[in-house]
């Protein structure tokens, strides 16, 4: 495996968050592929129970175990884990309290749901704890099992609370296994080996949530990573044409003549009107992207552009996005 300079040398836990609908899981999966390229082994963790990773990699629903889901470019491997809260709680009880049998009984009685409802901080400790354990896990020779771990985390509005588990458990336990476990998690999360990346669209609300999320993480001392700008539309018109389209000044008659010259005699006028309307919308969208780009440019964090995939996101599209991240130095 050849050495490669990236923006995140030394980072082993990549937390990916973003506003709902911004493509957070897609970006996390693409980042995992990018990080695994060249012979590395990466774990992609899902904690929201949506089986989004399985859908992206076109595989059956993931069980609560680490499974290989993809081979990265140049021979790396991506493993995935869909964390099940109940199974993780039973594992937690067995690990710290030797209560596996009791944990299974609790599941049957519905006590697990009760516990995680009245003490939501405990749920986050369990979920982040499972991820941080994978980050720290080593082979017998002392090397890490995974070169990197990518966490497909909750949305931006909940990310600070989700990661700042020490505050969340402060009312649950001052000492003991829960507190010790939370402390261990926070040592990983706050370390230079962790970066929290934001996924956004070039739209007002997602960008504002990104700005607010970065400010919130900074305030509580959590490590901010980069910004992945997803589904970026490439301009199809030059600047003069965009200005004319946006101002409603395109020459419809000229477009009609061009359509007829290309052999489209029937319905040329209607087609031209539709093209003018589409061009106006494209100009509006391009101007919106440029405005939101300027807002993001005021931040000091690295930014990575992920193009809009015309045919949607499939496995081939994930590899395309992973390559884009690598070309821009994200992995």
Architecture overview:
The chain has 2 domains: 13-233 and 308-326, Rossmann fold, CATH 3.40.50; 234-296. With 331 residues, the chain is of the alpha/beta class. The chain has 14 helices and 8 strands. The chain has an 8-stranded mixed sheet, sandwiched between helices. A hairpin with a 5-residue loop joins β3 and β4 (77-82). The radius of gyration is 24 Å and the shape is elongated. The two termini are 14 Å apart.
List the helices and strands and how they pair.
Elements: E1 13-18, H1 24-36, E2 41-46, H2 52-56, E3 67-71, E4 77-82, H3 85-97, H4 100-109, H5 111-118, H6 120-136, E5 148-152, H7 156-163, H8 165-169, H9 177-189, E6 194-200, H10 204-219, E7 224-232, H11 239-246, H12 252-261, H13 268-297, E8 303-307, H14 315-327
Parallel strand pairs: 1-5, 1-6, 2-4, 2-5, 6-7, 7-8
Antiparallel strand pairs: 3-4
Protein name: Anion-transporting ArsA/GET3 family ATPase
Domain ArsA/GET3 Anion-transporting ATPase-like: 13-186
Organism: Thermomonospora cellulosilytica
Largest sheet: 8 strands, mixed
**If helices are DSSP runs of H or I spanning 4 or more residues, what is the number of helices?**
14
CATH architecture type of the largest domain: 3-Layer(aba) Sandwich
CATH topology of the largest domain: Rossmann fold
User: If you average the pLDDT, what whole number results?
Assistant: 87
The number of distinct structural domains comes to: 2
Query: Could you give me the name of the CATH homologous superfamily of the largest domain?
Result: P-loop containing nucleotide triphosphate hydrolases
Low-confidence stretches: none
The helicity comes to 40-55%
Shape: elongated
Protein name: Anion-transporting ArsA/GET3 family ATPase
GO molecular function: ATP binding; ATP hydrolysis activity
Domain ArsA/GET3 Anion-transporting ATPase-like: 13-186
InterPro entries: ArsA/GET3_ATPase-like, ATPase_ArsA/GET3, P-loop_NTPase
